[in-house]
Design a protein that fits this description.
Layout lengths: L1 H23 L3 E5 L3 E5 L11 E5 L11 E2 L6 E4 L2 E4 L2
Parallel strand pairs: 2-4
Antiparallel strand pairs: 1-2, 1-3, 5-6
C-alpha cells in the first residue's frame, strides 16, 4: 500500500508541475507603428516613448492589416528596424 501511495503522490506532483509551467509561460505580442511585431516576455511594460502597442498572447491581426514578425531574444523593442535593448 505504501508503494501505491508514493506513486500517487509522485503523479500528483508531476501534474501540478505541468500545470504551473503551462500558466507561467505566457507572453505578450508587441507591435510598433511600422508594422513590426514580436513576442515580449512576461511582465513587459511599454512606456509611451517606445511607441508600441501591447496585445494579449492570443492576438491575431486582421486580413487587411499588414504586420511582420521580427523576433529577438531578450527584453526590448524595435524602432526603425533597430532592436533597442531594455536593461
Amino acid at each position: 500500500m505504501k508503494r501505491l501511495a508514493k506513486w500517487a503522490a509522485a503523479a500528483a506532483l508531476g501534474m501540478s508541475a505541468v500545470a504551473v509551467t503551462a500558466t507561467t509561460s505566457s507572453a505578450a505580442i508587441v507591435c510598433n507603428r511600422h508594422g513590426e511585431c514580436w513576442h515580449a516576455p512576461r511582465g513587459f511594460v511599454a512606456r509611451p516613448e517606445y511607441g508600441v502597442v501591447v496585445h494579449p498572447n492570443n492576438w491575431r491581426w486582421g486580413a487587411r492589416e499588414r504586420f511582420v514578425w521580427r523576433e529577438h531574444p531578450g527584453r526590448g523593442y524595435w524602432r526603425n528596424g533597430v532592436w533597442i535593448a531594455i536593461p
